[in-house]
Amino acid sequence: MNPTPASSPGAARETDTGAVSAPADPEPTGNGPAVNSATGIAPAGQPLTRLGGSTEYVGHLEDGAGQAAGTGEHALRRRPLGHEEYHALVQDRMRDLDALEADGGTRLAPGHGLVVALDVDGTILDMDGSVSERVMASVARLRAHKVPVVISTGRGIAAAMPVVRHLGLSTGWMVCANGALTLRLDPDAPGGYEVVDSRTFDPRTAIETLHAAVPDGILAVEDPGAGFKVSRLFPDGELIEDQRVVTFDELVSQPVTRVVLRAPGMPVDRFSQIVADSGLHSVEYAIGWTAWLDVAPEGVTKASALEALIARLGTDSAHVLAGGDGSNDVEMIEWAGAGVVMGSAPQWVRDRGDILTEPVWRDGCAAVLDALIERVRHP
């Protein structure tokens, strides 16, 4: 692994044999994005769900990339829908749900065993860490109708808990780390949750394979509830959780829920090809908007975690509506009775869903949730 410059905090030193020695500063370091003061939530630093906000991926969105006035920097132009536009969007989503049912699908509406599973970043959470009033209201209305709303995210526990707290979800269930962790939310439990299922794997083979394929890459393993152990620090603003620089031996020393590979500056097409050619196997992985790879235990996805969870709840996948926008959401979207894809998703993800809605900044998710609720009034 390439050494981190000596002036960097927590820098690791590379020995003559190429092994990484102990870091100079073993304390966790937080260099993630600033927490949104209104919500208490850190916006996604992971390029997987930044919706083109990464400096390496400006200009992806059709109505997105432009120049910020007077700054010379790229910015996203985001205009929320007005009342009439939003009402029309809800009506469109109602027609989509009606069409799914007419095509042989299960009726999805409160009171019919419905479960709603939602991704976080790019689905209910905007790029600045905000949740719109419409999303907040639609989630609250579903809860009032006794519909389980299950947050299903790639975030770790520490980064996901502020989201559910802001949404008012103090009880219920949450899937974290792309399906490797399932939590029961309990306000009386330490931290407000209990881990009811944890899926881990030995990271050694994956880390050795990825290091050989991308020697300059940053490798990390998740330490649930604490953050990440990393080979060197991620670029500022990218990793939400705390990170601690450790030796290679410590990275591979115990089973983990997730391995991350980041290759700053590498084009995503090249990165994807390198990963595909690396020989990585017996794991699940997802590549994001930029050179970022999440590796999970074999067979573990958001869908696999939700499948086990709904068995607890006494329902089945046909009664689940799931929404997301990224490659790590595809299995969940395909598995659910109604798979909703956000308008900001890449085309190949859009192709996997049943319903295409507007992007997060146009309240595409809220419109689907409100359409579900409207089906109670218009059976």
Automatic annotation (TrEMBL):
Q: Which GO terms describe its molecular function?
A: magnesium ion binding; phosphatase activity
Disordered: annotated segments: 1-54
**GO terms under cellular component:** cytosol
Coiled-coil-forming residues are none
Under the heading InterPro entries, the entry gives: HAD-like_sf, HAD_sf
Q: Under what name is this protein listed?
A: Haloacid dehalogenase
